Every structure is written in C-alpha cells, then in structure tokens.
Amino acid sequence: DEVYAKLEALGARLEDGLKRAATDAKVPHCVQRVGSMITLFFSGGPVRNFAESAATNTEHFNRFHGGLLERGVYWPPSKFEAAFLSVALTDDDIDKTCAAAAEALKG
Predict the structure, then answer these.
(1) Is residue 13 left, alpha or beta, with left meaning phi > 0 and alpha meaning psi from -120 to 50?
(2) pTM over cut 0.90
(3) Which burial class, exposed, middle or buried, applies to 72 when counting CB atoms under 10 A from its CB (0-12, 13-18, 19+)?
(4) What distances in angstroms separate CA 31 from CA 2, 41, 56, 82, one per listed residue?
C-alpha cells in the first residue's frame, strides 16, 4: 500500500507542476495521468485516440523534450509515449523536473 500511495503522490505532484508550467507559458496542453503513468499533450483537450494524439502540436513537444534533455531530464522521446514514475524518485526529483519543464516551455 505504501508503494502505491507514494506513486500516486509523485504522479499528482508532477501532474500539477506540468499543468502549471504549460499554463504559465501560455501553451495549450492536456496532462493525462493514471497513477504513475503520465503524459503531456500539447492540445487543448483530452486525447482519446491515435488521431487526436497525432493532431497535437509536435513543435511544442519537440521544444519541451529538447529543453528537458538540455536540463538533464530524460522524458520519453515521442509525443505518443507516456512517462512511468518509480518509487526511486523523490519530491525533489519531481520539483526539478517541473522547474525544467517550465524553463523549456518558456524558451
């Protein structure tokens, strides 16, 4: 039970941070998460299928992904993929990821 509670807390923290980063950068976005699986789509609404995923903004994803890499954060390299969190992560790791995302989206 502790493991799942930690994963849920980390996932919620990352979800909130990514939403805040994209909102502050005025980038249309949709964060979708189930437990420790999370993805950030660059579109204004929920993504329910491949066609909707394909229609998301590739330029914004590429800027986001490249900006994270420059800041030492390794995010899945395709807008069609999701990230999976681990109990090895800490709140500090999540906060650093959110800060890197905010910088990447502004830049």
Answers:
(1) alpha
(2) yes
(3) exposed
(4) 25, 6, 12, 11
CB atoms near residue 66 (< 10 Å): 14
Query: In whole angstroms, what is the distance from residue 72 CA to residue 12 CA?
Result: 21
**35 band by pLDDT with thresholds 50, 70 and 90:** very high
Rounded CA-CA distance 56/48 in Å is: 12
Per-residue pLDDT at 33: 97
Helix axes 91-106, 58-70, angle to 10 degrees: 130
User: Model confidence over 67-94: pLDDT tens digits?
Assistant: 999 999 999 999 999 999 999 999 999 9
**To which H or E segment does residue 65 belong?**
helix 58-70
Q: For residue 37, what is the enclosing H or E element? A: strand 37-41
